[in-house]
Design brief:
Three copies of one chain form a homotrimer.
Chain A: H1 9-37, E1 41-46, H2 51-66, E2 70-75, H3 105-108, H4 113-127, H5 133-142, E3 146-150, H6 151-156, E4 169-172, H7 174-183, E5 186-189
Parallel strand pairs in A: 1-2, 1-5, 2-3, 3-4
């Protein structure tokens, strides 16, 4: 029988069913992989600009990038200070209103006391070989983390595109940040 | 052959397999859509009551609603102030203990200084045509966002149902907020 | 025809297709359950150590555990104070720099005023039969919540393993916390 001869009706029907089953098996396996691994994308909204609260978004972002995650950090409100090249090297820990600092408020409110506690914390950070904020910003950019500066906040605080580290994304807002969150499997707000 | 005649055994078996395959194809396609689009539900836990931290939950909630998301914001602890009709128009930015405000603490602690920095921020917000907190609460309610006031906090702070904006949900707690989070694909805490 | 007789070629082929379809039906149903129920795992990053901000992670963690969730709370930066046996019973609310406390800053900055407002809040908490922080830590541990103390922060603040409640996990860092977040369906940062 030549290969050009059409198959018997029965055989054709079975072969059709078989190829549909094969396709289903492949698609189901793909979907299972997608469900189990997730989209491997993380979005962090960073709203704080103190020395202590600059660390959580930067540490989590660079950790996730090291695990192969696609990471976006959207910096809004005080979080913008982390991306401001000049300000980021001078973020402060506040002792006043920070009950975790062992200092009474009346002493803490004296001029210069913020500088003292911040200096103490910076020394501890350096002594423990923890990276500085500037180093973590650079590591994040180097490993492909998308550090975004909220345009509304840039205008509200009167900043300029040149104020930020090279590689920082500007011109973005809440709508694009939200759309990135929709695609992500981990979303956090600091 | 009349249409009432039962099909030959072979044909019946094939037709049965075929319909099971068709059903699998439909179900798999539905599940894929569900996995890829997610439940389109966001839950935000709002715990802060300062002028600056009232914005992130309200902006994200109204943005998500504009994208067709089902949104719940559960206001607990100081976050309750955002829903308190009288207090919400008078939320304060603190200059003391806020290292992002360019003012030494000894000056900032003087009576009235919180009012000064808050007034400065309100002016900047208006100058930049950013909506007020009251406007964002109203927009959120108008677009179907479920703004919830934590019952435990209402009792802790001695508030009354009438203190809140019309349309605010009361009588809810951590258990119902958690169950909403389970159904959501985006969960954030501010 | 004896049962040992192999089936006719047609029958064998149909039976093969049938068993593949059955397998697909089972797998699809399992995957649907997995998609719809999710992994039932929640991870909270706790970064704050004030009396007010100790509550959200502990209340959400114990609520989730009551609903059968597998819960991890990773305590880092000031969040470590919640797990510090001695400090946790003495967490403070700050009145200075906390615009939700009805007290002008110049009064609030007087020595002892933090203690006054904290005492007021503790009384309200007790009057409203809200559990204390120590009680919530114990409930969380008793219901199987994994309370983790960030090793980098332990070293930064000069603490010791013995300072923490029995049952607290030490020796963990951002990398393991991130991996737990990947497996979870709810991730929050306080």
């Amino acid at each position: 029988m030549s290969t050009d001869t059409p198959p018997a009706p029965d055989e054709a029907a079975r072969s059709d069913l078989e190829s549909r089953i094969e396709e289903l098996e492949t698609e189901l396996s793909d979907l299972r992989t997608e469900v189990e691994t997730g989209p491997k994308k993380m979005v962090i909204i960073a709203t704080k600009g103190t020395l202590d609260m600059a660390y959580p978004p930067l540490i989590l972002a660079s950790t996730a990038a090291a695990f192969g995650y696609d990471v976006t950090v959207f910096h809004t409100f005080w979080g913008l200070e982390i991306l401001h090249e000049e300000h980021s090297t001078d973020l402060k820990l506040s002792s006043v209103g920070n009950p975790n600092m062992p200092m009474p408020n009346a002493v803490a409110a004296l001029p210069g006391m913020d500088a003292v506690t911040t200096k103490m914390m910076r020394k501890r950070i350096a002594d423990n070989e923890v990276a500085s904020v500037e180093e973590l910003v650079q590591t994040s950019l180097d490993t492909g983390v998308d550090l975004q500066a909220c345009q509304m906040t840039i205008e509200l605080l009167g900043y300029d595109d040149e104020d930020f580290y090279d590689g920082v994304t500007t011109g973005v807002g809440a709508a694009s940040a939200f759309q990135e969150m929709v695609e992500a499997d981990i979303q956090l707000l600091v």
